[in-house]
Design a protein that fits this description.
- The structure is a single chain.
- By secondary structure, the protein is an alpha+beta fold.
- Helix content is 17%, strand content 26%.
- It has one domain.
- The protein has a seven-stranded antiparallel β-sheet with strand order 1-6-5-4-3-7-2.
- A hairpin with a 5-residue loop joins strand 5 and strand 6.
- The radius of gyration is 14 Å and the shape is globular.
- The termini are far apart.
- 30% of the residues are buried.
Length: 144
């Protein structure tokens, strides 16, 4: 586990040392699917991957917002924990969406790192930087 943690911290130097590895590495799903609660397939707006019907198949922030609208998410949220709200965040680098994370019941965040592990981390910005860019759009829906 020490080797895995070191590998993750090398790629994400902003991670607090308290981050947790919460899954085995798997290419079965990606961070977008993880944020959507789907661990059975890879979500990406470009073919041949899954993307919600009637959502634009474009590598653009608006396409991700529209795709998550099909799940009941709306913009105008922030990173704080709010009772009754389930939140996700979209990261953008050089104008293109790169990553999503979801907030857990504890208020901590969870990210799927590419084809690798899921991790729990305190703040979205901890996975920001050279690989994923910045957390730019928070979405929320009522927690069911």
């Amino acid at each position: 586990m020490a080797r895995i943690r070191a590998e993750i911290q090398t790629g994400f130097p902003n991670l607090d040392t308290s981050f947790r590895v919460t899954s085995e590495d798997t290419p079965a799903y990606n961070c977008i699917a993880w944020a959507a609660g789907d661990t059975s397939r890879w979500w990406w707006p470009l073919y041949p991957y899954y993307w919600p019907n009637n959502s634009p198949r474009a590598l653009a922030l608006g396409a991700f917002v529209e795709a998550f609208a099909t799940l009941g998410y709306v913009p105008r949220a922030n990173s704080s924990l709010e009772h009754g709200k389930e939140k996700v965040v979209i990261f953008v680098r050089h104008g293109l969406p790169t990553h999503m994370a979801r907030q857990m019941l504890s208020g901590a965040w969870s990210s799927k790192l590419g084809e690798s592990w899921d991790i729990g981390h305190f703040l979205p910005a901890e996975v920001g930087g050279d690989i994923y860019g910045d957390a730019v759009e928070y979405l929320w829906r009522p927690r069911t």
